[in-house]
Amino acid sequence: MVTQTTQPDALLRWMASLADATRLRLLRLVERHELGVSDLCEVLQLPQSTVSRHLKLLGDEGWTINRRRGTTNLYRMLLDELDPAQRQMWLLAREQTDGWAALSQDQVRVTQRLRQRAKTSQTFFTDAADQWDQLREQMYGPSFGGDALLALLPPQWTVADLGCGTGALSAELARFVGRVIGVDNTPAMLDAANQRIGGMDNIDLRQGDLEALPIEDSECDAALMVLVLTYLTEPAQALNEMARIIRPGGRVVIVDVMRHDREDFRRQMGQENMGYEPSEVCTLLEAAGLTAASCKPIPPHPQAKGPALLLATATRSDD
Asked: Which among 16, 26, 24 has a CA at the least distance from the CA of 97?
């Protein structure tokens, strides 16, 4: 928190840091997305030295935070973590730059950049479909899905298995609940899932993106996302969709990788990031409008070779 004594000096520094078109564009981008220097260079069409210089200044003034993913620094602005006066200044700057043509161009480019990253992830899943179940069991042990099943409620529920992959968890869920809607965006995964479920008539497999689910509002009683979040370029949007498709009073359950520093593992598994801290997942769930968010580590299986996992749950309010 900035003290009263230093407030004028801080105010002048914040004003100076916003008095640059490139820095305004950078902040508009990293407010919505977690991006690396190479991403920002491509979007802004500027050299790395220029982008890095502006990012350093923004970081020094507390506008951005960054974290390592392998050899890459990822940058983000977290509005809730800004000094209150600094946040007010940014909200005014954001309002005054709405409609700026440069930002429209930046949004087109960042959308394309994120699609390229998502395409890379989908290529990984297409190549891995035949060995996916064996690979996940080798990395996480044979029982990680059971923790998610135990978090589910009444057996008459309709449950969405988001990022259902080869349908292993959907098939298990179908034994406990009334109906399962499995969604995945990779045809090879869905082909394997169709072969797995055979004649199970309470499983509905649908192809679609998790950021724009092919499911109606409040169609489900619960939604499950197991080992999916680390593959998403837009996790916040996916969780917004997750919240949208469950009825008031419904539950969401997430199982995913805890934050780690194993870049070799991330590359092997084709993941977008190095996992999440439990507090990060709770923040994402709450930002999606969900309540009673809780997240805790799952005791690792003795044979698991991958990082530890976490289990998160939350509820959609009845209002």
From this structure: 24
**Backbone torsions φ then ψ of 59, nearest 5 degrees:** -65, -40
Backbone angles phi, psi at 145, to 5 degrees: -65, -30
**Digits of tens for pLDDT over the chain (319 positions)?**
444 445 678 889 999 999 999 999 999 999 988 888 988 998 898 999 999 999 999 999 999 998 887 778 889 998 888 989 999 999 999 999 988 888 888 888 888 788 777 666 666 667 667 677 777 777 776 655 665 654 555 788 999 999 999 998 898 888 888 899 999 999 999 999 999 988 789 999 999 999 999 999 999 999 999 999 999 988 999 999 999 999 999 999 999 999 988 888 888 888 888 899 999 999 999 999 999 999 998 877 767 788 888 999 999 988 6
Strand partners, 254: 225, 312
Contact 89, 10 (CB under 8 A): no
**Could you give the domains of the chain?**
7-98 (1.10.10.10), 129-316 (3.40.50.150)
The closest of 203, 207, 166 to 183, measured between CA atoms, is 207
Q: Which residue has the tokens 């109906």?
A: 179
- What contacts 282, CB < 8 A, 6 or more positions away? 293, 294, 295, 312, 314
Outline where DSSP puts E strands in the chain.
35-36, 65-69, 72-76, 158-162, 179-184, 203-207, 220-226, 246-257, 290-298, 309-316
Map tokens 């890379």 to a residue.
120
In the chain, the amino acid numbered 83 is D
Alpha-carbon 148 to chain mean position: 18
